[in-house]
Amino acid sequence: MTVVKEMIKERVRRAQVHDYVQKKTSRAGFGGLSIQRTPLGTHVRIAAERPGLVIGRKGSDIQKLTEELERKFGYENLQVEAGEVNNFALNPLIMAAKVANALERGWNYRRAGNSMLQRIMDSGARGCQITIAGKLTGLRHRTEKFLSGHIKFCGETALELMDVGIAQAKLKPGTIGVKVAIMRPDAKLPDEIEVTPLPEPVVEVKEEESTEEEPTEEVKEEKTEDTKVEKKAKADKKEKKSEKKGDDK
């Protein structure tokens, strides 16, 4: 068997495991699963709204599910664990199942679509689309869409940023399909560009060097002589004034 055929076979088996586990854990609020191959065996992690219903009393239900997966799909050394979904309102599989459950309980499709749409957007999603298709009000097939926020319909951005979940509601007129597509809150679109400001240039301020030259010894001597002459002149003026005052008297 070639590598391509082995990869296709493994992909088909994973899709079958996904559908089987979804049917078995529908009451617990199935939110997806991840399959990882390790040297010791295969590790399966199930995300659910209520993981206690998946585990069962003393782990009986999850042990039974592990044995069924090993027998049906040929896994060896299979390890299955269940974890809780952080925010179930942003999980498209759980929300699609809730819309289908609401339709089965007799809700009007507009009420079910709008209420779940508002709940998803209030949880922080960037965008959401709920599609309900089937015999909604009459004998003819109809498709109704409920949109809000930013949505990508095709291309690489739609494959990477949009999470899609599908569920079915079985009613008397027929089966109604529900599809929920949610854009995650942390999704970054290709056209969103952040311009980082340039760092301000650092200007080094140099201290101005004193350009005044220190006076030499000759200049100092000249200044001292000038001050002596000035002092003598002032003293002579004072003596002359005192003499004049004495003559006047």
Description:
The chain is α+β, with helices and mostly antiparallel strands and 249 residues long. The protein folds into 2 domains: 83 residues, K homology (KH) domain (GMP Synthetase, Chain A, domain 3), CATH 3.30.300.20; 95 residues, Ribosomal protein S3 C-terminal domain (2-Layer Sandwich), CATH 3.30.1140. The protein is 43% helix and 23% strand. It has 7 helices and 7 strands, in the order H-E-E-H-H-E-H-H-E-E-H-E-E-H. The strands form 2 sheets. A 4-stranded antiparallel sheet has the order 5-4-7-6. A 3-stranded mixed sheet has the order 1-2-3. A hairpin with a 4-residue loop joins strand 6 and strand 7. Helix 4 packs antiparallel against helix 5. The relative contact order is 0.09. The mean pLDDT is 84.
CATH T-level fold name of the largest domain: Ribosomal protein S3 C-terminal domain
Rounded to an integer, what's the Rg over CA atoms? 44 Å
Number of helices: 7
* Beta-strand content: 15-25%
Question: Based on the structure, what is the oligomeric state of the protein chains?
Answer: single chain
- Major sheet details: 4 strands, antiparallel
The assigned CATH architecture of the largest domain is 2-Layer Sandwich
| Overall number of domains | 2
CATH H-level name of the largest domain... which superfamily? Ribosomal protein S3, C-terminal domain
Q: What percentage of residues falls in helices of 4 or more residues?
A: 40-55%
What is the tally of beta strands? 7
Order of the strands making up the biggest sheet: 5-4-7-6
Q: Whole-Å distance between the termini?
A: 143 Å
Quick one: overall form?
elongated
What is the H/E string?
HEEHHEHHEEHEEH
Question: What is the typical, i.e. mean, pLDDT?
Answer: 84
CATH class of the largest domain: Alpha Beta
